[in-house]
Amino acid sequence: QVQLVQSGAEVKKPGASVKVSCKASGYNFISYGFSWVRQAPGQGLEWMGWISAYNGNTKYAQKLQGRVTMTTDTSTSTAYMELRSLRSDDTAVYYCARDPGAVADTKFFDYWGQGTLVTVSS
Amino acid sequence: EIVLTQSPATLSVSPGERATLSCRASQIVSSNLAWYQQKPGQAPRLLIYGASTRATGIPARFSGSGSGTEFTLTISSLQSEDFAVYYCQQYNNWPPSTFGQGTRLEI
């Protein structure tokens, strides 16, 4: 069965960086992409970006350009999302999600990780 | 950026009744629209993609319709486990892919 298991909660100070991992199992890793979606406390869903596990192509939300980097490691079937220069409004639950957009584009998200709470506070 | 507007913000329905949720796009998104269900403390779950295709394991009481800019999620006979927040998402024009603000379905 498809599983996405994310790394644990993080507490960071403003200006720091965080890197969240998402280990996939139960399917052919390079046949799909990943999207990352975040949800601030009590708020809706925000798409952050997409990465192809096949060729590493990425697309990011413009508001995060320059602060976010998404990568994958095919040897461990793990996706990563790094967010730098953290601010208090980056406090959110961060989700990885499997994306059938394998090569060139994002689509919908058919399996989700359990979420990782990132708290940014001085 | 395409804006998705969901209505109503909150829908109060009794178990066994039908619920109709709407999602309107600010530009044409063809049929590239998905619906998700989210319960408190849980990750979202994919219900519908391609505007009308049920995802794996989703009960037949969930159906999606529409194309272009107007979309509807219908739950034909509400069960207790269906009370949750529902989001639509477009993946036609991106980046960014965008979500609606959500509809809370309550008893």
Architecture overview:
The complex is a heterodimer of chains A (122) and B (107). The model of chain A has no long low-confidence stretch (mean pLDDT 96). Chain A is globular, with a radius of gyration of 13 Å. Helices cover 0% and strands 48% of the residues of chain A. Chain A has 122 residues and is mainly beta. In chain A, strand 7 and strand 8 (78-83) form a beta hairpin. Chain A has strands at residues 3-6, 10-12, 18-25, 33-39, 46-52, 58-60, 68-73, 78-83, 92-99, 111-112, 116-120. Chain B has strands at residues 4-7, 10-12, 19-25, 33-38, 45-49, 53-54, 62-67, 70-75, 85-90, 98-99, 103-106. The radius of gyration of chain B is 13 Å and the shape is globular. Chain B contains no helices and 11 strands. Chain B is mainly β and 107 residues long. Chain B starts with a strand and ends with a strand. The A-B interface holds A 35, 37, 44-47, 49-50, 59-62, 95, 101, 105-115 and B 32, 34, 36, 38, 43-46, 49, 55-56, 87, 89, 91, 94-102.
Q: Identify the most extensive interface between protein chains.
A: A-B, 25 and 23 residues
Outline of chain B? globular
> Helix content range of the residues of chain A, please?
under 10%
Provide a count of the helices of chain A: 0
First and last CA, distance of chain A = 40 Å
User: How big is the Rg of chain A?
Assistant: 13 Å
Rounded to the nearest angstrom, the distance between the terminal CA atoms of chain B is 34 Å
N to C succession of SSEs of chain B? EEEEEEEEEEE
Proportion in helices of chain B: under 10%
Helix/strand class of chain B: mainly beta
Pattern of helices and strands of chain A: EEEEEEEEEEE
